[in-house]
Amino acid sequence: MYKYQKPGTRTSMKSFAFDSSRKMAGIAFAVLCLVAFSGATVFLDEPDNLTVEVGGQATFRCDFNQDYNCSVLEWVYSSSQCTHGSSVTITTCRSVSLVPSFDTSRFFSTFGKSTTLLQINNVQLSDAGYYACRIADLNEFSRCGHLTVVDPPTPQCTMLSSSVRVGDTVRLMCRVPEEALTRTKLTWYPSKTPGSTRSLKVDQGQSYTVYHVLQESDKFRVFTCIAGNDINNGPNCTLYPFEIKTVSVRFQQEKSSGNSALMFECVADPALPDTRYSWSVRVAEFQNGTQPEWIDSGTDHRFVIVGDQTRFLLFTPKKDGDGLQVKCTAYTAIGTSKTSEALTIIPFPDDHFVTNDPSGGDENSQELSGTLLLSYMWIGIGGLSVTSVGGFLIMCFMCTRRRVLDNQEDY
């Protein structure tokens, strides 16, 4: 007897059976892959290569594909190469092995069922080498992580400020050189709060900048930026906000009762009320053709210090007109100093002076600067003597001078 069958029923059942078979095959394939992967991959995470500065911290990690008893887990080390035969066990879950050249008090390890960590504190140069974890009962070693230990670089200090008066805000910048091998910890000292530090880790070529409002007490201290983890002995650079940048000597001619004298001024930048000055002089008397020595101005009675800070120096030349060189040194409140270039003064019988520095004199003395020396021709009546101090000095006795351009005599 013919039995009625609903159209499409047989086809639908076949399709359902095919789909079920395909899903089961997929699940079976996934299980096989998982089993195969589990057998081939013992370590899911292995130690990485690290570069750490002396005094820093290094951490290595291993993750396993299954749980293990910690008694079979250990960390091994080799100083020269990543080979099983050259490594020694440095720590297990029960103890830290005593390994020559290792300060084991700095090594800490944690062991979980599927994870283990090795942490090295206060890293030293002797800690450099290869580190790996090992499953002892399987004799399986992880990939080695190489630890490179470097000394911190010498930082570079810069102060950015438009002025350096008490109450001004300055920017103190500390920079890690481009050639540094890793991130560097920078610490500014002293800090704003006594007993605390201002530290920041920065990348190569980057800076750590702090803002500081200058106080009266800052005149007597320097700011230090220390690189690395040893704030007592690490490489450093220093900044003194009130450091003297430039020193120069200015002069002007003074006349009193028919006698000529030279007043010298020591000009420091920045010039603070606490700045002190000293003077060195060299008088060209040319006895026996010998070059004169630099002396303290206080040893020659012709020089008189003017003012409490010795900023001014008064010189009364002899009638015969000795040549003269002058230098001044400016001192900060903490004793650092900067010295000016030597200023050469050449007196002539007609009460004119010539200097080697056009900017050294006042408005009246400028016309006698070294640049105008070439505009005059000196004609000796009785005799002419030529010698040198600091590059040049002309001594002319009983002479008149004549302008080269208009041939007019000055007396």
How would you portray this structure in words?
By secondary structure, the protein is mainly beta. The strands form 7 sheets. Strands 2, 4, 5, 8, 9 and 10 form a 6-stranded mixed sheet that branches. Strands 20, 21, 24, 25, 26 and 27 form a 6-stranded antiparallel sheet that branches. It is 9% helix and 43% strand. The chain starts with 8 loop residues before the first helix and ends with a strand. The protein has helices at 9-40, 363-366; strands at 43-45, 50-53, 58-64, 73-78, 88-92, 107-111, 115-120, 129-135, 140-141, 145-150, 156-160, 169-175, 184-189, 198-202, 207-213, 223-227, 236-239, 246-256, 259-269, 276-284, 295-296, 303-306, 312-315, 323-331, 337-339, 343-347, 353-355, 376-387, 393-403, 409-410. Strand 8 (129-135) and strand 9 form a beta hairpin.
Named CATH architecture of the largest domain:
Sandwich
Binned strand content: 35-45%
Question: How many structurally independent domains?
Answer: 3
DSSP strand count: 30
Largest sheet: 6 strands, mixed
Membrane topology: Single-pass type I membrane protein
Pfam family, one: V-set
Protein name: Ig-like domain-containing protein
Transmembrane segments: 376-398
